[in-house]
Design a protein that fits this description.
The strands form two sheets. The chain has an eight-stranded parallel beta sheet with strand order 8-6-4-3-2-1-10-9. Strands 5-7 form a two-stranded antiparallel ribbon. Helices cover about 50% and strands about 10% of the residues. It folds into two domains: about 325 residues, Divalent-metal-dependent TIM barrel enzymes (TIM Barrel), CATH 3.20.20; about 60 residues, no CATH class. The chain contains 16 helices and ten strands. The two termini are about 10 Å apart. The protein has about 400 residues and is an alpha/beta fold. Helix 6 links the parallel strand 3 and strand 4.
Length: about 400
């Protein structure tokens, strides 16, 4: 298993669609209890190094690239230099987003602030950032409402706040349409942090909210591993719901220990089994989107450790992808799955409604004794899965 051919099989290539954010590999290791531990890495170097490692592209918040107080000339100089390095390396910018959380103006939220001036500023800033994203080639635009929430419910009417949220997204959808941009929006949920409670806390909340918008066809989801695990939920189920609804527009891959703050750990580093089933879902569905790593290196690392983190993120995904192929080709596992599937037939046509089917069901004689006694062999199936993951099959 340590042959050169096997090693090459785990080498990332642009066709794997791996992406990172400027804010991920560029994270300087600052946390609430300590200052940064490594120098900032210039965006141009990030692009060059990620291209060298085999990534497809790099994503960004507006202020990851252009400082908040930059004038027009400075903005154009920075963007032109960035575009030059993108062209030289062949790297893409598939996704962009707006920083609506760092500025003190957003301490009560952006689209949901009680101050209408803040809501106007948030939309103004988002429009400028959308222009930048489109200029750089982005086709997906993510909205993470990190400050859209409360610490006390006394502070804000949640129904009014959701209305303001909807108004902002409707306005920005119309802006994109008026400009002729070919851009989709992806909403990212999180239950808490930095706010005590964040509105639209899970992927399911976001999915329901999308259908209340004026242009739901333009808006999908950007689920994140850590955010769903923070809520104690199964991330693969959230992604499956988004896929089934045709709303998986983007995805954020990382890892998270249960019951902790948002850790943004290296993908697959904490729950390889959960990561395996996520990779299996995406690969079996042949989902064509970006595999974006929204995570960062340990605070213990220097810049070399940052690139080890980036390379490891992609390598782990490819190892798990190989495990998925092994699982799908394992005759014992597939035979067991076929036995389980055969219990209900290929399709559940018995529950297609018709008046005749109602009468058939009323008079059907079901073998409840057998139903109550038959096992499902899930223990055996799970053990076989573990043996694939542990490398003994």
């Amino acid at each position: 298993m340590n042959s050169r051919a096997t090693q090459d099989a785990y080498a990332p290539r642009p066709e794997h669609h791996f992406t990172f954010g400027l804010w991920t590999v560029g994270n300087p290791g600052r946390d609430p209890f300590g200052e940064q531990v490594r120098p900032a890495i210039p965006p141009t170097r990030i692009v060059e190094k990620l291209a060298e490692l085999g990534a497809y592209g790099v994503n960004l918040h507006d202020n990851d690239l252009v400082p908040r107080d930059a004038g027009a000339a400075e903005r154009d100089r920075i963007v032109n230099e960035f575009k030059e390095v993108l062209e030289a390396t062949g790297m893409r910018v598939p996704m962009a987003t707006t920083n609506l959380f760092s500025d003190p103006a957003f301490r009560d939220g952006a689209f949901t602030s009680n101050d209408p001036r803040v809501r106007e500023y948030a939309v103004q800033k988002a429009m400028a950032a959308i222009d930048l994203g489109v200029e750089l080639g982005a086709e997906t635009y993510v909205f993470w409402g990190g400050r859209e929430g409360v610490e006390t419910n006394a502070a804000k009417d949640p129904c009014a706040a959701l209305g303001w949220y909807r108004d902002a997204l409707n306005f920005l959808c119309e802006y994109v349409r008026s400009q002729g941009y070919q851009l989709k929006f992806a909403l990212e949920a999180k239950p808490n942090e930095p706010r005590g409670d964040i509105f639209l806390a899970t992927t399911g909340h976001m999915l329901a909210f999308i259908y209340s918008l004026d242009h739901p066809e333009m808006v999908g989801l950007n689920p994140e591993v850590a955010h769903e695990h923070m809520a104690g939920l199964d991330f693969t189920h959230a992604v499956a719901q988004a896929l089934e609804a045709g709303k998986l527009f983007h995805i954020d891959l990382n890892a998270q220990k249960p019951g902790r703050f948002d850790q943004d750990l290296r993908f697959g580093s904490e729950d390889p089994k959960a990561a395996f089933f996520l990779v299996k879902l995406l690969e079996d569905a042949k989902w064509p989107g970006m595999r974006h790593f929204d995570s960062h290196a340990y605070r213990t690392e220097d810049e070399e450790g940052v690139w080890d983190f980036a390379a490891g993120s992609m390598r782990t995904y490819l190892i798990l992808k190989e495990k998925v192929a092994q699982f799908n080709a394992d005759s014992e596992i597939q035979g067991l799955l076929q036995e389980i599937a055969a219990r209900g037939g290929a399709t559940d046509s018995r529950l297609v409604f018709s008046p005749e089917r109602v009468q058939e069901l009323r008079s059907a004689s079901l073998d409840l004794e057998s139903i109550r006694q038959d096992g499902y062999a899930y223990e055996r199936l799970d053990q076989l899965t573990m043996e694939v993951l542990l490398g003994v099959r």
